[in-house]
Write a structure and sequence with these properties.
Elements lengths: L9 H17 L9 E7 L2 E4 L15 E4 L4 E3 L8 H10 L5 E5 L2 H9 L9 H7 L4 E2 L8 H6 L8 E4 L3 E6 L2 H24 L8 H13 L11 H36 L1
Parallel strand pairs: 6-7
Antiparallel strand pairs: 1-2, 1-5, 2-3, 3-4, 5-8, 7-8
The structure holds zinc ion.
């Protein structure tokens, strides 16, 4: 991992994008020409994948250099329309130095169902990835897409795009890519445990807060906190209790008022 002030050189960034592209393609996180990858090489510049090429077969000369407003600085090919999402993440969160977008099939199925990845079932998912919310559906290529992810860029490390795919980011490209791997792995475990084995022993609130402390000690402030269903049950019981007390108070008040009216008549 690079230290905070140091960026990859142009050549390093272009080569790394090709390498990560091959991995994303070989792991079946994308099909055909899907997905895109970008790396920041200066406070206001990135290298990004071009439109219309398979991520598994890229060469460094295909890459496009852009500023954070989306103007092309160099490169022969056209940038992908989905680069707007990447630019938005960089603009919303200056700590981000790399963004990966893919359509990993299990996580994308959760995105299609509109179900966020937030069950506390895996310590690694809590520490290294965090919870993954679902951004509302937006037509691909339009300004609605970056607008839909904007609220999540600062507090989370990844987001599912409804009926579309997933987006991860990080302080460098390896972290952003590993978060994509963790995201698909986490989605796969959620699917097996909740929908195939039909049983998942969730981490309890103490175990979750221990993990959040480990995450903080690693310098990660983002990622959200998964909600233990024990907590959810407890708040449901509390709500029920409050409702019951309210009901009793209402009944007693009615009774007293009735009694008083009778006495007055
Ligand atoms: Zn896409």
């Amino acid at each position: 991992m690079r230290n905070k002030q140091q960026y990859y050189t142009d050549n390093e960034a272009k080569n790394l994008i090709c390498e990560i592209g091959r991995r994303v393609y070989n792991k079946n996180f994308v099909a055909a020409n899907d997905g895109n990858i970008s790396i920041k090489v200066g406070p206001n510049t990135i290298w990004a994948t071009p439109t219309g090429v398979s991520k598994g077969f890229m060469t460094p000369d295909m890459m496009v250099k852009m500023d954070l407003e989306g103007n092309v600085i160099s490169g022969e090919m056209k940038p992908s329309s989905e680069v707007k999402m990447h630019l938005r993440v960089y603009n919303e969160n200056p700590e981000v130095n790399a963004v990966v977008h893919a359509h990993p099939p299990v996580a994308t199925s959760f995105a299609i169902a509109g179900v966020s990845l937030d069950k506390p079932i895996s310590p690694e998912a809590v520490v290294l990835l965090g919870t993954v919310p679902v951004a509302p559906y937006a037509t691909p290529g339009t300004q609605e897409v970056p607008d839909s992810i904007a609220p999540f860029c600062k507090d989370y490390n990844a987001v599912l795009l409804a009926n579309h795919g997933a987006l991860t980011w990080g302080s460098d490209i390896i972290q952003a890519y590993f978060r994509m791997e963790s995201l698909e792995h986490y989605a796969l475990m959620l699917m097996y445990s909740n929908n195939i084995i039909n049983k998942a022993n969730e981490l309890n609130p103490t175990q979750i807060s221990d993990l959040i402390n480990i995450r903080k000690s690693m310098g990660i402030q983002t990622g959200g906190v998964p909600q233990s269903s024990l907590d959810a049950q407890r708040s449901k019981i509390l709500n029920n209790k409050e409702e019951m007390i309210e009901h009793i108070v209402r009944k007693v008040t009615e009774e007293v008022v009735n009694q008083l009216m009778k006495e007055n008549n």
